[in-house]
Amino acid sequence: MVRIEVLGMGCENCRRLMSNVEAAVRQLGIAVDIKKVEDIAAIMERGVMLLPAIIVDGKLRVSGRVADVPEIKRILTGGT
User: Is residue 80 pLDDT above 60, yes or no?
Assistant: First the structure.
């Protein structure tokens, strides 16, 4: 199962990114474990400096911007 962590402090961009991740997963129809990480200490432990961010299976894939649904789908299907 794919593990996705959406990192952010609850700002509008963070909420939009979470919504886009959920939409991409729904559209792909795949089983994933999505975790929202809002604790600043936990975010810093992951070495992420720019929010919002997405970590997929332990690898930072997006940082400092809101990825759109098509980009997230590409990430989750092994594309760019």
Answer: no
